[in-house]
């Protein structure tokens, strides 16, 4: 019993560091804030800061997410994000918030964020959301307004508005200033320059004609 008691904090610490090691966030800032200097020509990990004496409340506020996104595209979705351009005060803080608008029966196609986990909350409508783990197991859930779902860092995930008429709205928080996004279908069939046909034919077990059709459909 005593040995158990002694090893427990160590075990807990070990487990915690393993978990944290796998979902490491952006580096910790060394300042209270580093309001982004949009005019700077320096390229560093993040965006350089303006003089702290020049910082005001307006640097920490944005209405960027108040507007409905334009969902008139082949998938029927739109993503609007807070950025260092529309919300300079978020620079170096390791997070962004995004608004996702999805038209009736629209989708956010399977995609991944290489640098962030994402927790999404349905604000309006009915959403079918899900992700695929690295053993190709799928986890899905239907979300109603007020319900949230989490997509683990780097894993392929999707959102679908299961109502054919009403638009849906979700809001997501991601734990990186620059999560990055790769849409699986576009990364494979609409890359510039294109991935050679022979690779796509073998990878997807399809013909050259089918490769061309998918490319054309996706604007590749
Ligand atoms: C939405 O996007 C489409 C396609 O890009 C464009 O034709 C249309 O004018 C846009 N609608 C609005 C309201 O901006």
TrEMBL record:
Residues that bind Mn(2+): 111, 113, 118, 157
Binding site for oxalate: 113, 118
Cell location: Secreted, Extracellular space, Apoplast
GO biological process, one term: regulation of root development
GO cellular component, one term: plasmodesma
GO molecular function, one term: manganese ion binding
Cystine residue pairs: 34-49
A Pfam family hit: Cupin_1
UniProt entry tagged with the keyword Oxidoreductase: no
PROSITE patterns per the UniProt record, alphabetical: GERMIN
Signal peptide: 1-25
Entry keyword Glycoprotein: yes
Primary location recorded for the protein, binned into one broad class: secreted
Alphabetic keyword roster: Apoplast, Disulfide bond, Glycoprotein, Manganese, Metal-binding, Secreted, Signal
Boundaries of every Cupin type-1 domain copy: 63-212
Family: Belongs to the germin family.
Protein name: Germin-like protein
Organism phylogeny: Eukaryota, Viridiplantae, Streptophyta, Embryophyta, Tracheophyta
């Amino acid at each position: 019993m005593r040995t158990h008691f002694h090893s427990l904090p160590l075990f807990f610490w070990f487990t915690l560091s393993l978990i944290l090691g796998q979902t490491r966030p952006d580096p910790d800032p060394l300042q209270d804030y580093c309001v982004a200097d949009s005019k700077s020509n320096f390229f560093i990990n993040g965006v350089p800061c303006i003089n702290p004496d020049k910082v005001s409340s307006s640097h920490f506020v944005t209405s960027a997410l108040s507007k409905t996104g334009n969902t008139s595209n082949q998938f029927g979705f739109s993503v609007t994000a807070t950025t260092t351009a529309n919300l300079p005060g978020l620079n170096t803080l390791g997070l962004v918030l995004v608004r996702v608008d999805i038209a009736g029966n629209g989708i956010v196609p399977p995609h991944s964020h290489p640098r962030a986990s994402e927790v999404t909350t349905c604000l309006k409508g009915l959403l079918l959301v899900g992700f695929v783990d690295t053993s190709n197991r799928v986890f899905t859930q239907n979300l109603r307004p007020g319900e949230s779902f989490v997509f683990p860092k780097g894993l392929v995930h999707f959102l679908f508005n299961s109502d054919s008429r009403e638009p849906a709205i979700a809001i997501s928080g991601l734990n990186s200033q620059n999560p990055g996004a790769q849409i699986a279908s576009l990364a494979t069939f609409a890359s510039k320059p294109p991935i050679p046909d022979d690779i796509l034919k073998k990878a997807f077990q399809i013909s050259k004609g089918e490769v061309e059709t998918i490319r054309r459909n996706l604007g590749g």
